[in-house]
Amino acid sequence: MVLQRQQQLDEILSGELLKEYKTVHAMIEIYCAKHHGVIHGLCEECTELSQYAKTKLDRCVFGQNKPTCNRCPVHCYRPEPKENMRAVMRFSGPRMLLKHPLLAIRHLRHEKKAVPEVPKKNTSNRHLRKSSGKL
């Protein structure tokens, strides 16, 4: 099942977007384990949040040059998922250094990069994937 989930991710996200999703998903797993008591995998609510994050990463106007969400000039999350993700990140951020140190350090380094200007239309991962024939 884990391999199947990884293959689905690889089909939709790649490169920096896939790394970003793995980081976000790991944070959601930490949060879900402590707040919802789920040991392996995610509860339904956290699964929805993870899927929402994947969709937003796929549709991000910055594509592979995406800044971290907290530094992004484009606010794409709806209010409720945005608050849920903030709670996840506040709780899981410090714990990432213990559970997933490489992902955490990579994310901290990525936060230091300059925020690019908002690109022209049709540069999202989703648009590029669809225009190249990959669904």
UniProtKB/TrEMBL annotation:
Residues 116-135 are annotated as: Disordered. It comes from the Bacteria. Signal peptide: none annotated. InterPro entries: Uncharacterised_YgbA. Residues 123-135 have a biased composition (Basic residues). NCBIfam families: PRK10410.1-2, PRK10410.1-3. This is Nitrous oxide-stimulated promoter. The lineage of its organism: Bacteria, Pseudomonadati, Pseudomonadota, Gammaproteobacteria, Vibrionales.
